[in-house]
Amino acid sequence: QSTWGFFSNPVVQMEIDMHNLPGRKALDEVAASAMKKIRNLTLRLEGGLGVANIPVYVKEEEEMKVKQQTSAPQGTGKSPQGLPKQRKSFTRSVSKEIEKSWWKVVQCTPPSVKQVLKVLDKVARIPKKLHMKSLLKHANRRREKTHNFRKEVEEEDIFDQMAHIHQHPVRFIYWISVVQVIVFIACIAQGNVAPFGVGYESSLHNVPYFNGVNISQELKNPRNMWYGPETPTLIEWGAKYTPCMRDEPEFRDTRHLLNRTEHELFGCCVSDNNECGQMSGDDCGLVGGSFLGVGVNCTSQLGPVCDVIVLHPCCYYVDNNCTVTSKEHCDVLPTHKYHDYAELCSEVRCEEGLCGMGSLGSPNSHTPNQWWRFFTPIFIHVGVVHLLMNIVAQVVVGGDIEIVAGFWNTAAMYIFSGIGGNIVAALFAPMTVSAGCSSSIYGLVGIQTVDLFLSWQLVDHKALQFVRVTLSTVLVLGIGTLPWLDNFAHVGGFLVGCLCGFAFLPHVHFSARDRFIKAMLTVQARFLLLAGFIGLLVLFYLVDNTDFCGWCKYIDCVPYTSDMCDTK
Q1: Catalytic entry in 280, 326, 434, 438
Q2: Which one of the listed residues 312, 329, 381, 490 is annotated catalytic?
Q3: Which of 378, 319, 352 shows the shortest CA–CA distance to 361?
Q4: pLDDT (tens digit, 9 = 90+) per residue, 323-377?
Q5: What's the pTM value of the predicted model, to 2 decimals?
Q6: How does pLDDT run across 212-231, given as a tens digit for each residue?
Q7: Residue 492: half-sphere exposure toward Cβ, Cα within 13 Å
Q8: Is beta strand 266-270 parallel, antiparallel or unpaired with respect to 275-280?
Q9: Quick check: helix, strand or coil at residue 565?
Q10: Is residue 344 within 8 Å of 268, Cβ to Cβ?
């Protein structure tokens, strides 16, 4: 009944009377033109089989067969039926979309020309939209294949990087351990072994003093819980002790107080048998001597008044203790030095006899400057137990690091960590005597922590490893908050070790971005190491008062009980 082939459906004829539509002639012309465009609509498919023009919709079965026979590409010997399955499905999907669009038109009210043109425009865009979807689908497949290929290439590159990291023999860790054992044996052989235990060992001595008067002296000799040499022996062999490294403010204040006391009170006291010595007027009266007056020098009285000077300055122990006394009294005092060339304590420097190692470090000067004590404590240990614990720890932890990092890198990281920890300890705990390679070992722990995060992509069970490293770090640093341990050295060594891990450890990069980030971390870590050492040394030599950090004392010792930190 109409030039619209779609309107032959009897259901449609019952709803739409085409003969009574207004503008029927114009609508028939538009419909005829639309039918012609639909029948001639083709889709160009590009692929390995060449270019084929395939009809997307033909109403009549006979015309469909004719089109399929005539639309085969020249020279290919292939018909549209021989095309790949994805092209057949694509053609069917286009036909279905067109049928849906036309049925929407014919099942509604009589369309106007404008509606028909609008539908034709949508129909014309259907093949393009479906073609774009197909291209997007294939693009995603190609992107996925490319991603998988790049992943395989990156994995091969990672394995190549790991293969090029040389496996070094463990030499430095064994060498440093042997040196530490030799130094400890020599230290024990040369000095006295302290009583074993915790606290002090008390003793009472009755010794001659002056003019036939004896004095009773109670001595408290500190015990060593690590079973090793006495504290003065450790200082003499190079333990960390700030008064031997700079003019310590506490020692300087003690000297000034002693000088003022001697200047205001002391004078020459003469015994009944013409023995002389410097003391205060009150003390001279107690021992039955004759006081010649404040400020009178006994040396000037030799001959007419004094036959011999029997009292001289005696420096003892490690706290800048000095007293003018007899030789017999000085001999019973711990770690003493009797200065028989002087009369008053203000005329001597007790550090000269305490620090040892040849000199105070400053030529033609009495100012202490034994800077090498930042380095020498690494080789000295306070006891047998301390030595064995440190050797086991550094062999277990440091051996794995040296296999990857090599002799020189491991040596640099080990020594830098030890020096950094000793600088921090000397700055914040100046009056504490400390020795041992613990700061270097804590540095190795920091290096292991950094290595874990640099190789995070290769780690299995990441959450478990993170918890393990976190708990072990908190544990080893928490132990240092107990008394008898120098936790400033531990914390300083750990922080310097972390920087050394970024600065010297070989690492594997997993992408170009990862390579750039790790290269920048290496540069920044080396800069921070240099700046950190310079800054700490400036603070150590120029800042006398460390009260600028009031809470830092809790890093070294936490008072879990009221008197726990009194022994520090």
Answers
A1: 438
A2: 490
A3: 352
A4: 899 998 888 887 778 888 888 888 888 877 778 766 665 555 567 888 899 999 9
A5: 0.68
A6: 888 888 888 888 888 888 88
A7: 28
A8: antiparallel
A9: helix
A10: no
